[in-house]
Amino acid sequence: MHKKGFCLPKKEFGTLFTALQSFGEVIAPVKKDKFLRMEKIENPKEITWEGISWFSSKKYVFPEKQTLFKFKGEKTEKWNENPSPKVLFGLRLCDLNAFAINDKLFLNQKPKLPFYKKFRENLLLVGLWCDTPQDEYCFCDSMKLQHKYDLCLFDRGDNFHIKIGSPKGEKILKKLKLKAEDYEKELAKCEKKLNTTDIKKYFENNEIWKKGEKDCLSCGTCTILCPTCLCFDIEDESNLKGTCGKRCVQWDSCMYKDFTLVSGKHHFRGERLDRFKHRIFHKLDYFKEQFGESMCTGCGRCIRGCPTKIDWVSLINKGTSDK
Amino acid sequence: MKKKCSQTKNFIFSKNKKMAEDEIVFLPIDKISQQTEDQFLFRFKTTISHDPGQFFQCSLLGIGESAISICSHSENFFELSIRSVGNVTNKLCNLKKGDQIGLRGPYGHGYEMEQFHNKDMVIIGGGSGVAPLRGILEHLSKYREKFGTVEIFFGFRGEKDILFESDFEKWQKKDMSLAFTLSEEHKHPKAKKGFVTNILENLKVTKNKLIFLCGPPIMITNTAKMLLEKGFMKSQIYVSEERQMKCAVGRCGHCMIKGKYCCTDGPVFRYDELY
Ligand SMILES: Cc1cc2nc3c(=O)[nH]c(=O)nc-3n(C[C@H](O)[C@H](O)[C@H](O)COP(=O)(O)OP(=O)(O)OC[C@H]3O[C@@H](n4cnc5c(N)ncnc54)[C@H](O)[C@@H]3O)c2cc1C
Ligand code: SF4
Ligand code: SF4
Ligand code: FES
Known about the structure:
A: alpha+beta; eight-stranded mixed β-sheet; 9 helices; B: Rossmann fold; 5 helices; binds flavin-adenine dinucleotide; binds iron/sulfur cluster
């Protein structure tokens, strides 16, 4: 897809930064204690320009814990706060796509989750293009990612090329009066590939998944780190008398055994193997059936962060290439 | 192919109140009757439009929500049969007439009865699983002439666990056959000893029959296996599945069965949709 682009000399980056700050507080990748995190910054000098953030940015649309409504007696009062506008700066294409994927589930279908819409509307997504993979875990070029952003920066040495992806982005960039230019760049070529040909065939083939069964700790780290894992729990909190309190939505994980518990102590995915497979199949197949595209962006976080380094991509490749 | 769930058309909640999608409506309990030691029948004097098999999310603020099937089919009221098994259901079962329950729904894809006109209906239920099936039976009683033969098979644990026994005679009078088993030792004159599968041995296999199955997971698995071995086709069997449910609108992921959402694609599935 060809998108309009403009040239910004790097030494004038401050003008863009000011324009972004006029939208809202700027959250950008910052290296701290060896980890790259998304943090609020005041000065462009704080930005770390290499690497992919350890955590995804999903919490900016879907906080770990979010009030749905408060109640007092039988009176309920809907959550109706106005989140402060934020610029998420320096998102990689995988994470930009994650927003689009989460939108499919939470924004484009009815009933909407009211808080998701509010948080989403108050975000400006500014990408940072990957010329090379950020590390050996990235496999985004196997995942058919699309240009989804408000603005996206391409590093051209002394200049940035900035593409506009939405009217929201255009409005910000217009303030800068930049020179238009033509520039296209392919996404990084990753060494890690995911071969999903005929993947359905391998679901029932438990041989492939043995390592997942043996090494998985059901710790849920993969689901916490994944930018599109947003399964949730609904929980009530109240004072001791139960007269007032709130109902909250909270991140949950399909890797936990109790995720499918029903009365009679029956677990529908009581086996570790079933949970491990379920997550991957939701990412690669079930979501595709529902929305026409994969739920995985190839960001590699679930492998990068797994305490036992279960590389499900290579497990699948082994299956799909052994014919 | 994704089936459109019928929930949107069923969001009508009493004549003038249109239930917003995520809105909880508080209704007073009009009548409570104890059915077993730990199961109670709640009646609400409100009309709703729904298919049998659909369910409500029943809320007690500060405690939580539980999915409960609508087990009636009437123009004047609706009923929920609730078994006390945990946090929410224990508290629900301790409520009194006039107390309020928060409800949202009805949710899910139930039994679309018009599809089954002229079919021979076989209703098989185990334990609490007979609750959603009672909705079908109430519909059949009302529109009996639109359907073929009706055979009912229920299984309960003991004499004290039998549900809706006071309805049995009414259904039999409407030309529906009914047999049931009790798995514990008992002295009930009409019940056979054993599991519901024991009384299904003589069930005749015909092409015009449809089977409606609901019960605990193990009962569903065993019964479906037996029916398939007898020669019924997967497409003749409808199961109502139970899963942990939180959102009831296809978002939270808890109820997923393979790629399907039990809350919106189900809870009623044709067997070949899932297995
Ligand atoms: C479509 C559907 C229809 C149902 N119809 C009825 C009915 O007509 N009558 C009836 O008595 N029960 C019915 N149930 C089961 C009922 O929802 C659970 O027994 C109830 O949610 C248990 O909640 P609790 O807080 O009392 O128990 P706890 O054990 O304290 O619950 C802990 C958590 O697990 C979840 N949970 C536990 N068991 C179940 C379960 N079986 N299904 C879903 N979530 C569960 C609850 O959401 C809760 O958050 C139905 C369930 C489903 C899915
Ligand atoms: S991070 Fe690894 S060990 Fe933990 S649940 Fe995920 S796959 Fe299993
Ligand atoms: S499944 Fe793994 S690689 Fe795919 S989006 Fe989630 S964290 Fe990234
Ligand atoms: S109950 Fe939340 S997705 Fe079905």
